[in-house]
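Two proteins follow. First one:
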Amino acid sequence: MSDDNLSESGAGPADAGVTPDPEPSGAPAGDDGTPAARKRRRRGSRGGRNRTRAAGAAAGATDDDFDDYESDAGAAGRAGETPGGEVAGPSEPARPVPPRNPRPAANGTPAAPVDTSAPLIPSIPPPRPKIGDTRPAPGPAPSPAPSASGADAGGGGARRRRRGGRGRGSGNGGGPAQSASRPVEAVLVDEPVEIDEETMERRRGRERKGRPVGRYMMVVHARREATQIAVLEGRALIEHYVSRPADDANQIDGNIYLGRVQNVLPGMEAAFIDIGTPKNAVLYRGDVRYDKDDIESPGGDSAPTRGKLPGAARNARIEQLLRTGQNILCQVTKNPIGTKGARLTQEVSLPGRFVVLIPNSDTYGISKRLADDERKRLRRILDEVRPAGHGLIVRTAAEGATADELRRDVGRLSQQWDRIDQMAKSSRAPALLYREPDMAVRVIREEFNRNYRSVVIDDRTLYEEVRDYVASINPELADRVEWAGDSGDPLPVFERYHVHEQIHKALDRKVWLPSGGSLIIERTEALTVIDVNTGKNVGTSNLEETVFRNNLEAADEIARQLRLRDIGGIIVIDFIDMEISANRAEVIKTFRAALARDKTRTQVFDISELGLVEMTRKRISEGLVESFSETCPTCGGRGFVFDESLL
């Protein structure tokens, strides 16, 4: 039996009666015939501190099997020391050293006795390893010898533990490496549709002196931290959007997720869904889609019926439709606002330029803003291009669109849904399946038509992207997309069109009217209050006429401020009291006509006996003021600070 086998089986040379070879590992011998000192490596984090070895096994072990109790300098001064602490020196003995504490062998037998005949001197403790210490390059690893006990070679019978709990060769916690699949994105650029010259001329819009004429204008100001989009009606700012790059936590309206049900609240008729955002989203019972076979009926209840929307539950309870841990496909309909999470629906829809695809539904509709003749023409086309098993809604932008354009739009959306459906079957919840394009492209997709005289963009890359997108869907409007650098005006684009100063006015709580009156806009937790004042408007004829004219101006300006500030929820307007009922009716008529240009859904009630107008507006985002501000850390958003000395 070789010395290596004795060492690995746990028996030292003293137990086996074999004298260890003075030069077993090929180390050079000293002048006195003893093995020369070997410079030991400093122990790293490989678990050597708690590993035991057999007594006397140093003769056949490698450097990694020693416990580094001494520094390299101390080890070099004890070239003649045996593993058990005995000093077998030459004719001139080496400097005596104190013995190390004997340690038992791996098989439990005591180590060799320590020779105490040599004088002992106190030894200096070795220095602890420090950051920055050098470590000699390790020599070639010896070939592992066969082990009699089945243990690792040179390991003293103890198997080493891997540090960090990581798997073999993988840095993701030992599990299989998962490749992060990218979500599906909307196809923006496609080959342009061939349109005859007559159709192009009809859809191009009005021009004056070679310049496009339109009621609206869009100005896009792109910076690294955010992109701002301003919509002007004439020269007045009516809408403003702020988009921040890679914001998958707040700007997620329209995204499609594979979510996991966290908990179901029967008392709230809602469920909280984990979609991977900081706040769980909420799914109400009316937005749940289901099949009759999936309902868990408690007993003899009658089968629930479906609502007006296909798949929307009417009588089924939320706990019968969803269960904790269930994976569902859902879409965000409202961004998270304040402390509230996003709102979800299972009625998934994919918006295109001309149509909206509703997968797995029989919904069928055409925009009511189109004329009757146009609606009939589009209905005949949709009967041919409608995909089987999916619903379609024709948008207002489809006015004048050809059958080829509608067919290509439907085909593009159908391909997107197939990719989303396939990705949902192979993904683990929560996962983002579909991401809406950037805000600038989204607004252009929803709003841009021949009523816009131009779209001015100050970023070259974004300009080329938008121009290619418009050229592929509306080639007759591609020349209305302009780059701000072509004009040669050195002013920034927002200052050139007086957008910057109008934003500053929109952030103030007080808005001045042309006649001298004013509006005071106050937002609270529950609702928004707007107060109408005459201010500097003193009139010319009588009080009733002055109040009536002031309220008419206020009605138009309030409708514009609601769109510009994106105020949603409950809104209460305090018009100045009017004695004549006809004047009150005229003010409400003017106010509703001004709100008709707002694409966000609103509902307005008549003036009450107290002179108040109550209305609601769908809340989509936090609002203009919140997008430019944050809560004051001193007052907590209350607007005043308490005197701590009196409390």
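Second one, unrelated to the first:
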Amino acid sequence: MCLRTFNIIICEKGIDKDFIFIKKYIYDIINKKRGKIMAMIYCRECGARHSDKAKACPKCGYAQYDFSKSIGVYLLLCWFLGVFGAHRFYAGKTGSGVAMFLLTCTIVGVFATAIWSLIDFIIGVCNINTPENVFAKK
């Protein structure tokens, strides 16, 4: 029995181990394109390996963050729409985002949310190299 992939013919006789390895490799490529294979990452807190899909480390509970979010976008939202809590919604902290939005509806709340967003901006600038401190849900 022979397997034809990538214009290469691989026969089973004499190279069973190589055939099985290549066959598993091909299945991994196919499944990766379908999004079925998970990458393993290391926890920044305890060093344990876990899936990249996990929200938190199963060993220590350290919250992971979404790598698709940018600290630059967070800072721009904080600077321009900070009093409305847009940066909080972007960071995934919807509870405090709703609180900021509702506080903005009052006159006193506008000043409170302005100070709150300024503090969030300073925290974002200080954590520009470690965005997991900004985006991780604690």
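SUMMARY FIELD: The CA atoms of residues 71 and 130 lie 9 Å apart. The longest helix spans residues 107-126.
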